[in-house]
């Protein structure tokens, strides 16, 4: 039966997870509310220990929330996983070193009852050339590609990637995201946890920023950058007097960094200040930059703690 | 889905060889060495001869050790995140354990069969033919209780070297369980409480059953090895369950 409401890919309500050992109690996730619509590409961004992996584990039904609720495509996570509608590339381990690449893909395909997809998936993830190689002899990037292949086997509607490029070099990372782009078509929902800002910036339409077990910011990746107002202008100034004068241009001006006569100013109205720097203070080599996601990240996580 | 998994498991074992050599060749080699000392192995014993007795002992040891080694990989592979990988498929975790058990049972069966074949070729004999098959079946069924032991040790120490430890301890259990050489007096009394005693005593029972009590090599009353086997099966099962729970809580 068709429902009028579009089902959300992932819905997290009041999600808490506390790990209790005999001595300590760690609150890894403290009240996460999140709704991700089908077809979105979302980055779960945060430093190590932000609670990203714990959240991912609960979305996959690998661990149970202490309180709160997880729904995947309107289903209980375990059901969504066993029906092959959601799959994941997990952060650590997950491969046996003495199996060959082909054996690994084959057995997992058998477990999904999708043996017919083995060849196509191996081809798409570029594993056909190393099919006979043992997993233990594969590089970090290749192993990550194997895990990616395993996640594609059930042809999932929702694909979750936990630090998918960890341990890859720059080239491997670029190749990985290129393959990823091809898979992101056809309404597939993709959620990836990362601590590389660049990846969120380049690939995600929406970024959820996590810190200390909470969501500290959530919005279109572009919007998130604008959360930090102002621009940075760097310029080389002719003398000390010019530097002093420039600082008095308006109250929003401050010096962020200085290297000799090269000054990095923070300012609110970058256009007017740039004009003044060039015409009134004799500055040259001027550069204006918008705040990076990194700046947003630092500021927002600082605010949260 | 189990069929593919089991096929790949066998492919891995054949490729690595290490486990298989231990499982198949070591018991056979031990029987060949100790079972063919001409001075006494031709002597009659119970319903057969000493060779048959030694053949049963070595086959039982081999079956148990190979079960431990293979069942233990359930633990080590789960620890390496393979369990999580499987948890993301349709296959229930129980099917993973089941396929490992099938592999373990097959290797144990092959290991014991090899020793039996060697025995049959070199003069192990019994007066009643059924003793061959019954002893063989007791060896196979009894070996399975050591699967829980292997899983438990693997889970507690969570490394591949733990499996070496588990197998190493089996040698100790074997010596102290009256498997390799007949124990006497106080040692034998203590041995009745060790894990391999009931297992191997039961496997030998069809051979020794007619020796009257009080004579050399006379078997214990049947309830003693049965009680030993059941008790250790329970202990190992509980140990495995507790170890799995603890390991899960740590994750």
Give the number of DSSP strands of chain A. 13
What is the distance, rounded to the nearest whole angstrom, between the alpha carbons of the first and last residues of chain B? 27 Å
Uncertain stretches of 5 or more adjacent residues of chain B:
none
Strand line-up of the largest beta sheet of chain A: 5-6-7-3-8-9
> Globular, elongated, flat, extended or rod-shaped: what is the shape of chain A?
elongated
CATH arch. level architecture of the largest domain in chain A: 3-Layer(aba) Sandwich
Strand proportion of chain B, as a percent range, falls in: under 5%
Trace the largest sheet of chain B across and list its strands. 1-2
Question: What is the name of the CATH topology of the largest domain in chain A?
Answer: Rossmann fold
**Silhouette of chain B:** globular
Oligomerization state: heterodimer
Compute the gyration radius of chain B: what is it? 19 Å
Helix residue percentage of chain A:
25-40%
Which secondary-structure class do the elements of chain A indicate?
A: alpha/beta
Unreliable segments of 5+ consecutive residues of chain A: none
Helix tally of chain A? 11
**Helix-strand pattern of chain A, N to C?**
EEEHEHEHHHEHEHEEHEHEEHEH
Please give the domain count of chain B.
1
